[in-house]
From TrEMBL:
Keyword Metal-binding applies: no
Residues making up the signal peptide according to the UniProt record: none
GO cellular component entries: cytoplasm
Protein name: dihydroneopterin aldolase
Organism the protein comes from: Harenicola maris
Amino acid sequence: MDREPTSAFASPEERAAATARGPRDRISLRDYIVDVEIGAFQAERGATQRVQFNVVVELAHADEPIDDDVDRIVSYDTLTDAIAASLAEERLNLLETLAEQIARRVLSEPRARRIFVRIEKLDRGPFRLGVEIMREQGGAEGLTPVEVLAPPPAVVFVSNAAMADARFGGWLDQLESLGIPLILTVEASGIAAPQSAGRMAQRRIDLLAIEQNAWVLAGRDDRCLVVDSRTEFEYAAKTGQTTVWAPSKMVLDAVEPAPHDLGDPGQMLGWLATHMEAVARYALSDQAIDGAVHLPLVDDLPLGG
């Protein structure tokens, strides 16, 4: 019993050795520090903090001699690249999510068998806050062998006039007949939003105004599901569900430049379409939008082009 606290806080290398099922090769990355914007608290948004990574990977024995050839080994770059790719994909709230993504990427290497990932925040106080996970290749917590890719969507801007029109249900029928997953975007309603002197506070207010209107649209037709993340979009696309974009999470968590003018429907549609790799862009509106096929508010939408 006296050894349990010591073992719990041992290095990933020591923990790997203590729980090994047999002799295995290992590669490790120690005390790798990166400035990261991560965290669920408001104080952690818009600022970076130092995050330290320690990773140990157990490897199956090579089938042939490595002959001092770097192309025949699992390189240390595999570990740093997995960290960089996970950080670049999206802004994350949880270290647990980041650790899972790193583990999945590294375990995609054919020789990787087991991984220990420890991640710690260094700047949250006179201590370290961290998480450690262990994942195995092919185990209950390992990789899903085959991932079914979501079909690429069409992104459709729905104006307030289109949303309020009694023909909206029929227009949605016509859009769904394209056989492409649909992501609908909306603008804020005509009701003036509250105003704040703080730039970030106002940005959140403006995003919430758009989200309120997304729920209004969902209330118009029960085929429309409000979602706020790429994961939800992709799941909906696989199941044929039409979605309405609630933009706050994706815009605030964006790693790449986010739309700066939330009141510009074309900019919002274009950003989402690029982010989701959309195959088509439409504007169901009484006014055209640059970069989108204009669908005027008439009974039969011109969807043939």
